[in-house]
Amino acid sequence: MLETHAVSLIYRNGEGVTYAVNKVNVAVKHGEFLGLVGPSGSGKSSLLYLMSGLKDANEGDVTFEGNSYQAMRNGKLIDLRRTRYGFIFQQHFLINYLTVFENIMVGALEQSEAARKRARALIGELGLEARSNRLPWQLSIGQRQRVAIARALINEPAIVFADEPTASLDQTTGHQVVDLLAQYRGHGSIVFVTHDPEMLTQADRVIRMRDGEIVGEEKRNGKG
Amino acid sequence: MLEILRNMSRRKVRTGLTIFGIVVGIFAVTVMGSMTEYFNAMIDNARKGAGESIIVSPKGGIRAALSQADVGRIERVPGVRVAIPQVSTFFESLGSVSFGPPDQVIGMPPEKILDLWSEDDLAAGRWLQRGDMYQMVVGTSIAKKEKLALGSVLEWRDKNWQIVGLLKETQTAPDGWLIAPLDIVQKTIKRPNLITQINVVPEDSAQATALAAKIQDEVSNVKVQTLDEQLDAIEQALAVFNAILLSSAVLAAIIGGLAVVNTMIMSVSERTPEIGLKKAIGATNGNIVGEFLLEAAVIGFLGGAIGFLLGWGMAALLNLGASEALGGSEIFKITPRLALIAIGLALGLGVIAGLLPAWNAARLDPVVALREGA
After folding, report:
1. In the predicted model, what is the mean pLDDT of residues A134-139?
2. Contact B53, B116 (CB under 8 A)
3. Residue from B16, B7, B18, B12 nearest B270 by CA
4. What pLDDT sits at residue A103?
5. Does A95 contact B274 at a Cβ distance shorter than 8 Å?
6. Residue ranges in chain B modelled with pLDDT below 50
7. How far B3 CA lies from chain A's nearest CA (Å)?
8. Cβ pair B280:A87 closer than 8 A
9. Which chain B residues are Cβ-neighbours of A91 within 8 angstroms?
10. pLDDT value at position B62?
11. How many pairs of residues across A and B have Cβ atoms under 8 Å apart?
12. What's the distance, CA A103 to chain centroid?
């Protein structure tokens, strides 16, 4: 469904060149939970940015359902992110003057009744019914991250890109977040970046990265 | 829209101060503008009522005057239907406070008044007629100021004058006029033969300009202008005054606009992670620019609307004061055009002030913006 083809992300510092991602080939299958793990600076987040189109590759290309990012004009790539992808980051990035419900609707493609119904359903599934009219500062960190998950899932994306979503959470809350995300596996794929292998017990496949390169791959749950 | 208002209400003091900056500027634009609107209306009204009469005034210094012989010479110029001599003198001493044309006592021969005016110009009473002596027809503002009604008696220059007619409001100089028989006014001011102006009515009003030139050629020591030419000259002088008045007010509004720039830059800086998130999940540069421009426009509009309403209130208050002190002159005129200019200016300033910060917000790299918030 999504593939990277010898994709690289290069940072230039004066005369020097640093490969944040170095000619990486990865394929994400439909409905797959793919874990990207590695120490800080290994290039796992950079690879997620390339896969999701948040960064342009300096070398190589990315394709989604056979369509090349390079061939897409910028507007089309933005459109792809809006319509087919969902995003969760280490910080929840909730808008602090909007309620839980409104924050979820920020991600909605349109402010339709169908979207509002879906937002209410997600609020129920994520156990936030009693807090749908609260503002972000009135929630716990775990609850805020659950709202961020709901915002990412509002359009039922083909792929959810999660960049260290558990890094600011304790182990218990972190696992709850992973469990919630893992439930989405049947509807779409998940690309989950973390430095903590403990968070990937539910992944179908785990790719290990170091210095911008893939240094290992492990299939789990009999899938992938 | 609701989202924008809620975001603005988060920083009440800052938003309030920014709006206040615009309010002050637009308040100044409204008050100053209402004064220029008053002058514009005065000129427009005068032009409407001007017809095609020709004004002949003496050439030379302030002491120069016309004579009955000049009236005769002008009446002999072919094309002149009638020449009406007039003497004008200030109703009060020059030291009194006045905005716009001063109140004046105008002396005219009663038998020629209807060549220049019509019965329609009267709100009540009658025009002066042959045989009248200490009778007057008065304009609306002087009537209000001196509390004059039909039959009232006014004391001026130690004489009692009876009010026999009230003019309709013209919103021009005649509102402050007291019209009395020429010979009686000349006698009262102790200048028996003084004529300060001659009003010429042409036989063919379409030929007024040509006739003015002919009179200028044939009668010496006079200055001849059509009323329109006179109004043009006044309008030109007022244009400079208006420009100075309005540019100082617009400058105040622009300074208010700078406050919007500052606020929007701070807003973009504070909301960098929010911008990063919105861009990551698919907001276009246009969406981001639109959002910030709308916020700046809302600030501009609110500032403009409040500033205009306050300016309107101030103009009404000043008019009330002026009405009491100056006898009914309304020197601040609020017009729909002024409302449109004041609020439009505020809105435009808001949008222009928001352009650069909005564009900067739109250009943010989503990943960099998100990292700043992490």
Report:
1. 91
2. yes
3. B7
4. 92
5. yes
6. none
7. 8
8. yes
9. 273, 370, 373-374
10. 66
11. 53
12. 17
Burial class (CB in 10 A: 0-12, 13-18, 19+), B48: exposed
Helices (runs of H) and strands (runs of E) counted in chain A: 6, 10
Mutation pick from A47, A97, A133 vs chain B, by most beta carbons of B within 10 Å, is A97
Chain B residues in contact with A102 (beta carbon < 8 A) = 3
Exposed/middle/buried for B82, CB within 10 Å: 0-12, 13-18, 19+?
A: middle
Q: Is the pLDDT of residue A222 over 80?
A: no
Pairwise CA distance, residues B195 & B224, whole Å: 15
What is the side-by-side strand order in the sheet with A159-163?
A85-88, A159-163, A189-194, A33-37, A205-210, A213-219
Instruction: Report the C-alpha gap between A185 and A120 in whole angstroms.
Output: 20
Cβ neighbours of residue B153 under 8 Å, at least 6 residues apart?
B160, B161, B162, B163
* Among A95, A80, A106, CA closest to A161: A80
Neighbours of A8 (CB within 10 A): 19
- Tell if the CB–CB gap between A91 and B274 is shorter than 8 Å: no
Q: Residue B249, Cβ neighbours under 10 Å: how many?
A: 24
**Residue in B372, B361, B323 with CA at minimum distance from that of residue B142:** B323
- A54 vs B7: CB contact, 8 Å cut-off? no
Amino acid present at A9? L
DSSP 3-state of B340: helix
Domains annotated for chain A, with CATH where assigned, are 2-64+72-219 (3.40.50.300)
Contacts of B66 (CB under 8 A, 6+ apart): B56, B57, B58, B85, B195, B196, B197, B198, B222
* Contact call for B366 and A54, based on CB within 8 A: yes
What span, in angstroms and rounded, lies between the C-alpha atoms of A44 and A164? 10
In 3-state terms, what secondary structure has residue A119? helix
A residues 161-220 closer than 8 Å to B (CB): none
- Helices marked H in A72-187 — which ranges? 74-84, 100-106, 113-125, 141-153, 171-182
* Predicted confidence (pLDDT) per residue in A62-119, tens digit: 999 999 998 887 788 899 999 999 999 988 889 888 999 999 998 888 889 999 999 9
Distance of CA A21 to the CA centre of its chain: 17
Rounded Cα gap, residues A123 and A144, in angstroms: 12
Question: Is the CB of A141 inside 8 Å of chain B's CB atoms?
Answer: no
Whether the ipTM is more than 0.90: the answer is no
In sign, the C-alpha dihedral spanning B63, B69, B74, B80 is: positive
Do A81 and B374 lie within an 8 Å CB cutoff?
no
What is the distance between the alpha carbons of residues B346 and B19, in angstroms, rounded to a whole number?
10
Residues B304, B345, B32, B173: is their CA dihedral positive or negative?
negative
From the list A55, A87, A90, which residue is nearest B374 (CB)?
A: A90
> Which phi and psi (to 5°) does residue B104 adopt?
-135, 150
- Is the confidence at residue A21, as pLDDT, over 60? yes
Residues on B contacting A at a C-beta cutoff of 8 Å = 3, 6-7, 9-10, 273-274, 276-278, 280-284, 366-367, 370, 373-374
